[in-house]
Amino acid sequence: MPKRHDIRKILVIGSGPIVIGQAAEFDYAGTQACQALKEEGYEVVLVNSNPATIMTDPNMADKVYIEPLTLEFVSRIIRQERPDGLLATLGGQTGLNLAVELYNSGILEEYNVELLGTKLPSIQQAEDRDLFRELMRELNEPVPESAIVHNMEEARAFVEENGYPVIIRPAFTLGGTGGGIVTNEEEFLEITPAGLHASPVGQVLIEKSIAGFKEIEYEVMRDKNDTAIVVCNMENIDPVGIHTGDSIVVAPSQTLTDRDYQLLRNASLKIIRALQIEGGCNVQLALDPESSQYYVIEVNPRVSRSSALASKATGYPIAKLAAKIAVGYTLDEIKNPVTGTTYACFEPALDYIVSKIPRWPFDKFEGANRKLGTQMKATGEVMAIGRNFEESILKAVRSLEISAYHLEVKGKNLNKKEVEEKILRADDERLFYIAEAFRMGVTVEEIYDWTKIDLFFLEKLHGIVLLEKRVKERKKDSVILKKAKEKGFSDRWIADAWEMEEYELYKFRLNEKIKPVFKMVDTCAAEFESATPYYYGTYGEEDESVVTEKKSVVVLGSGPIRIGQGIEFDYATVHTVWAIQEAGFEAIIINNNPETVSTDFSMSDKLYFEPLTVEDVMHVIEHEKPEGVIVQFGGQTAINLSEELERRGIKILGTSLESMDLAEDREQFEQVMKKLGIPQPAGKTAFSVTDAVAIASTIGYPVLVRPSYVLGGRAMEIVYQESELLQYMENAAKVNPDHPVLVDRYLEGKEIEVDAISDGNDVFIPGMMEHIERAGVHSGDSIAVYPPQTLPETIKQKIIERTISIAKGLKIIGLLNIQFVWHKDEVYVLEVNPRSSRTVPFLSKITGVPMANVATKVILGESLKSQGYETGYQKEADEVSVKVPVFSFAKLRRVDTYLGPEMKSTGEVMGRDKNLQKALYKGLIASGMKIPAYGTVLFTVADKDKKEALDMVKRFYEIGYTIMATEGTANIIEKEGIPVDVVGKIGSEGRNLLDVIRKDEAQFVVNTLTKGKIPARDGFRIRRECAENGVVCLTNLDTSVALLEVLESISFSAHALSSFTKKEKVLV
Amino acid sequence: MKRYLILEDGTIFNGLAFGSQGESSGEVVFTTSMTGYQEVMTDPSYCDQIICFTYPLVGNYGINRSDYESIHPATSGIIVNEHAEFPNHHEGMQSLSSWLTAKDIPGLYGIDTRKLTRKIRQHGTLKGKMANSIENAEEIIKELNASPLTNDQVKKVSTKSPYHLPNSGNRVVVVDFGVKSGMLRELSRRLCDVIVVPYNTTAADIIRLQPDGVLLSNGPGDPKDVHSGITMIQELLKHNVPILGICLGHQLLALACGADTEKLKFGHRGSNHPVKDLSTGKIALTSQNHGYAVNEKSLMDTELVLTHQAVNDGTVEGLKHKLKPAFSIQYHPEASPGPQDSNPIFDEFMNMIKTTKKEGLMQYA
Which of A903, A930, B100, B218 has its CA 20 to 30 A from that of A368? Predict the structure, then answer.
């Protein structure tokens, strides 16, 4: 059946901000869907609140709305646009939940909007635990013993009947938020209530644990003709018990016989047929390693993170085909875009093995609970392709960018006991510790007992350790070198083992003619001729990547999504690719993140799915011989490679390495700024505690302190007095001559962020953003406002002048990002990033300047003038836009949620409207905050903030909010004549703070940080309690004021009339 | 130990030996199935062929006691990228390597199997030899070019004498051209009283067994080499015996009805072949293993109707006789290995038997 002609306009719902459990994969899915629908001639209207996505680019849909994904706003869009159809199954859980809400509200029926693809009853049947289990019973498909419970009593009854361990899974949540494995009474009391709370419908599934079973996923597709296929199956190396998003996964399955495979395939297809899925679907199953007993774990009736992985693992574009199915096509009518000759109705055959390893944020959150369980904690993932397991997994390891180039734990003296404990605990480093255990002589069987990881995989890992020994023994032996390279060993590790420099080994190796070839990912194991420009490197005989005559440019991607380096960099990477193509070159991309748009092979001329290490990048470059490499769009990942690439004679296009060093090296940077006459906050490097104290007293408190060797704001702190400084030096930074500490004056003031493009002659500034939070909160965690609302013209001029002068002074060619602080009539420069920044997508969208595109062309030699841009600041837009950070605190236990110099947010949303309050309202709502017009605010603030807080209290009171406070704060409030509800501090008798939060008695909590951080103090518990109970906790007074202003703008205050009193004569 | 694959076009692949120490030659084919290597290796249709697995890791779950498609494997050799030294599965009994040794089948690993696959795709299947030395490579290449493909594979793999698998249901005579156990299993599952007869059994002998239906099995090689089968089928049709032809059996039915077969460039071997049922428009993913196919044009002047077709290349995948109770399919409804989507084909056969019985059309004399 061909496509439908009765629908013309389709509304596509995106997935909103990046949070743990819902990341860049939905940008990939949404982008594919929009393209597929446009290709078919439909008018596409897109709504998504996340500006950092490719899908929200104006050219991706006929109309793009960056608006909150809420019933209120999407209903507005439906009324305005009158779409015929709604496609929600590509927007993750957010899209699906919103579709359900829209349906229930009646608006879809009212405006005759048809839900395309999988129908609502199917979605509900798959999502609602009760309905799903009922269906499984009808189909005779086994599910583990379980019960749907709505309260503790029901949960208790289940446990009494079935015993521990049990798994708690909240209904309708992302990435298993709030769930977990419960093995005893204590955990039962902790996890069950959290789970009930996490579910928007107060419903959890309590389930007999089948931990230890093999966890297998099937990515399946079905069309309305009832044709159903398996795109890919995947096997989690970590058995059931660890969330699949946190599991190391291989594709295809490795340890299943064909009977096992077909058993689970049949079950998966039976289920999607019964559910009448039209599009993509993910089925998770558990298989007993000792029998053919299996269980159905869950079904996601939509494209998912796993389907993005499956698409990249096979080359089969699931989201694109799901969109086509939604508009009426059947699988046998759609050509397989990979081969171009065969049809989409087939099951890909792989001739390689794919490994996925999650990327966790624990490098940023050192205090976090790293134990993995049913609640996902990873922010991103990497994928690697190899022709054997060892190659595949080791390539994935070095793609992670955690300074690991091999399966080893560096710099720790471990004993067996520690290793055993670590492995038993099953945290993010388990894979590495397993290898360490083998090195200590622990047997494969012992590790199996500890982990239940299939012996097949453990033997392979053991094999890697055994091969290490042989490599170490046979220095500079080309036979063993070839073997090691075939098994995926990195040059870096081998060079260490042979006590050589990595580059030396590289040269030795090439001299021995040991280098990889590139093979194509073609969905069909070479059975049909394909023209997909999608390659991976492996040590084989035949190279399939044909280098064309056309001049090419290599772009380095940004690797896995992590805190501080998110989807924004993939956005810039994709734009770079397009710009390179527009400029007439072939665009070649190297990246390793399976979730992203940049690793969609149809985006570039050639995609190399490879680790972003010098070795792997060099292989591609030597094969392709490009004009040069562009590094400034791939975030720090790519920048970090440039020095070594240049050393190996590779041309870095754009801003030179020298200039990048100028910006990144503190001493050199200081000199340049001095020369340019641009002030910086005073500061010095301290090599001892006495040093630090002396510097601080010279430059004056407060000071900003941080260890010099740590990047990205980690362990950075603002200290207000000497005692705090001493405490910091004691706890956070072990200062010594090798590890100095940087002490800078902390200038309280407005922070301003600027992105600019420079071609060496001209410097064009598309826009500048003012941060709501005063300096001290990481720019990525601040609310940014464009255009600035409070800056006087003189300050703006200073910023513009200084930006131009810095860009020229540093000889920037391409993009740069500068952070300034406005402090007492002066503008100080805090930081310069000689590269694309987090704000580029946001700023591009609101200013209409495709910044990454323009910058790429500059890099390729087209001047700004020739592109129609001149030196200066672009005229500001009339509308106000805000970028609001989004956090994933609920998923990260033990992480303190206060905002400080360390970045903590995982994503962002945008709000845009006629004035700041409206824009903020949208932004805050889009970020997931509930903003009721009345309610209760609980204040518990540090002494130094009490004065400022008092003003806020008054204003909250005036708009009808009830004020609640702890005793100290309450006293001050009462003095002002404002009624206040006093609550006890933590540990006090009767109703205390935590009870209020747990019982949802306050809508907002304002909690500021008491200085002199003592771990595990009350503030931390308050903030965590809020995170776990979904209560908005504001840790910064500026954010609080912003929220207050929004509230004021949406509520009418009620004032009694003044009584009649005799006044002066009224003039007529 | 080193081992080489020498191809008729002069290409030499340089790898390592596993399994049997012996050498062997045959037609080199590739299969894209990612699971089910044990079923593939024991499928008699691979007689005199060297199988290259495109999936690079083979032997991961070892060899078990259940997944045999015949007792004695007929393949000439196995080529893999890597074979598992430490397989693991609760049913696994031994490693791939030790099994190949026990069955005296040479194995080759450590070559670029994708390069070999691409070569076969571009060139078509090639004759090759798995040799332990390349000293006489030139001679071997000459020999490979000089020797035609074998034509007696069916004789090699068919049962030498009939045997009975008694059960309570319909009596089905299976003509063994190289039958896979999977077909017998599917018939047994439907309680059929199965009698397996050698490939060269005459129609008269079959009729004497008073079958309710006849299954023409799969098997190796060129259908045109199986003359006795063609005449046997022509006779059977006259008796209105319900016939199901699978794979080679399907090609033989076509030949018996006057259609023609041809050799495909490199065949269909794998678990992911989409086939469309032309009457319902439904698509099934099928398991396939064939190097020959029925020529669609040749159906013109026959009593056969095209019922199933390959989605990818339009190959004839299913036929039905206009007048007689006979139908056939090119793919493998018994799967083993591969998707079980078309398992209901056996039920169709049972239904055909039922209808024919009811109408009393069958003639046993």
Answer: A930
Q: Catalogue the E-assigned strands of A119-255.
A: 146-149, 166-170, 180-182, 204-208, 214-222, 228-236, 249-251
Reduced to 3 states (helix: H, G, I; strand: E, B; else coil), residue A844 is helix
**Contact across the interface for B60 and A455, Cβ inside 8 Å:** no
Q: What is the CATH number of domain A930-1050?
A: 3.40.50.1380
- What CATH number matches the domain at B2-146, 3.50.30.20, 3.40.50.970, 3.40.50.360, 2.60.40.10? 3.50.30.20
Tens digits of residue pLDDT in A18-54: 999 998 999 999 999 999 999 999 999 999 999 999 9
- Has domain B153-359 been given CATH number 3.40.50.880? yes
DSSP B225: G
Give strand ranges (E) for A959-1009.
Answer: 962-966, 981-983, 1004-1007
The CA distance from A290 to the nearest CA of chain B, in Å, is: 5
CB contact under 8 A, A332 and B274: yes
Structure tokens at B209: 């067994």
User: Residue B247 catalytic?
Assistant: yes
Four-way CATH pick for A145-209: 3.30.1490.20, 3.40.50.880, 3.40.50.300, 3.30.565.10? 3.30.1490.20
Q: What is the pLDDT of residues B239-270, one digit of tens each?
A: 999 999 999 999 999 999 999 999 999 999 99
CA nearest A217: which of A179, A257, A245? A245
Contact B193, B166 (CB under 8 A): yes
Check if B332 is active-site.
yes
Give the right CATH number for A121-144+211-348 from 3.30.450.40, 3.40.50.720, 3.30.470.20, 3.30.110.10.
3.30.470.20
Architecture (CATH level 2) of domain A9-120: 3-Layer(aba) Sandwich (3.40)
* Phi-psi group of A251: left, alpha or beta (phi > 0 → left; psi -120 to 50 → alpha; rest → beta): beta
Q: CA–CA separation, A777 vs B124, rounded Å?
A: 66
Q: What is the CATH number of domain A750-877?
A: 3.30.470.20
Widest distance between CA atoms in chain B: 67
Q: How far is CA A995 from CA A935, A991, B55, in A?
A: 17, 6, 58
How far is it, in rounded angstroms, from Cα A1015 to Cα A718?
16
Q: Inter-chain contact B112–A541, Cβ cutoff 8 Å?
A: yes
CATH 3.30.1490.20 domain residues, chain A: 145-209, 682-745
The domain locations on chain B are 2-146, 153-359
| pLDDT tens digits along A601-650 | 999 999 999 999 999 999 999 999 999 999 999 988 898 899 999 999 99
CATH of domain A355-514: 1.10.1030.10
Distance between CA atoms of residues A542 and A538, nearest Å: 10
B114 vs A258, A455, A526: nearest CB: A526
CATH number attached to the domain at A682-745: 3.30.1490.20
In 3D space, the residue among A874, A340, A258 whose CA is nearest the CA of residue A601 turns out to be: A340
ipTM of this complex > 0.95? yes
Of A260, A262, A342, the CB nearest to B335: A262
> Which of B52, B192, B247, B257 is an active site residue?
B247
The pLDDT > 70 percentage for chain A reads 97
Specify the higher pLDDT residue, A947 or A384.
A384
To the query of whether residue B47 is one of the catalytic residues in this protein, the response is no
CB contact under 8 A, B112 and A345: no
Which residues in chain B have Cβ-Cβ distances shorter than 8 Å to A529?
A: 121
pLDDT single digits (tens) A431-485: 999 999 999 999 999 999 999 999 999 999 999 999 999 999 999 999 999 999 9
Are B159 and B198 in contact by the 8 Å Cβ rule? The answer is yes
- Full-model pTM: 0.95
Is B281's CB within 8 Å of A225's CB?
yes
